[in-house]
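Colleagues,

For the teaching module next term, I've prepared a clean inverse folding example: a structure given as tokens, and then the sequence designed for it. I'd like students to try predicting residues themselves before seeing the answer, so please don't circulate the second half yet.
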């Protein structure tokens, strides 16, 4: 479904720039899930789907050095949300991967997202070079997971500069395509593929899901 050419034109971006308030602060992406961090799970899923992977995180990048990936901070101040992370990824691609057309974003606290995420995004974007593609499931849209044309970087920067913070407020000003991903059956339960661990109890639930997936 996804060609080698398309993969080479796509940079994977892991959004880990939030404050993790509901998890009690700190880096929730570095919380352990099974025998490795949530971030490691996300990298493992995203890396085969794209040309290269970049982490968007604020603060001291040295704490993420063990992952061996570029770390880019928001250029918009005061923790402006995931759109600021998308912009940081676009700006990194412009400097370091100028032939990349797209950014594929994934959240650092969502360890079970689809392994065909980028392929299905790129299929939906065929013939729509400036369109944004967002993920959806039975629970509705998941706009942190998207395919973002790097060509929209200046427009996004302008929107953030004047105060836009909600993803859909910005994407609604552009042609946007939703791609629906099916729920997963894990053991005897139905699991949203974009299940995210925002709180300690979610992380405990993720542990249970992981154990069932490995059973």
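(Answer key — instructors only)
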């Amino acid at each position: 479904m996804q060609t080698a050419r398309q993969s080479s034109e796509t940079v994977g971006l892991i959004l880990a720039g939030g404050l993790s308030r509901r998890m009690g602060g700190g880096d929730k992406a570095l919380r352990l899930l099974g025998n490795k961090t949530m971030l490691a799970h996300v990298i493992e899923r995203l890396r085969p789907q794209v040309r290269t992977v970049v982490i968007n995180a604020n603060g001291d990048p040295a704490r993420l050095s063990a992952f061996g990936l570029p770390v880019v901070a928001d250029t918009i101040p005061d923790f402006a949300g995931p759109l600021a992370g998308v912009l940081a990824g676009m700006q990194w691609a412009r400097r370091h991967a100028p032939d990349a057309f797209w950014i594929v974003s994934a959240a650092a606290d969502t360890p079970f997202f689809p392994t065909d995420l980028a392929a299905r995004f790129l299929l939906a974007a065929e013939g729509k070079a400036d369109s944004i593609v967002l993920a959806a499931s039975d629970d509705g849209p998941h706009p942190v997971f998207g395919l973002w044309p790097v060509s929209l970087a200046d427009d996004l920067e302008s929107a953030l500069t004047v105060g836009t913070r909600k993803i859909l407020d910005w994407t609604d000003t552009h042609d946007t395509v939703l791609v629906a991903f099916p729920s997963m059956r894990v053991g005897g339960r139905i699991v949203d593929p974009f299940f995210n661990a925002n709180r300690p109890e979610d992380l405990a639930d993720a542990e249970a899901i992981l154990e069932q997936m490995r059973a």
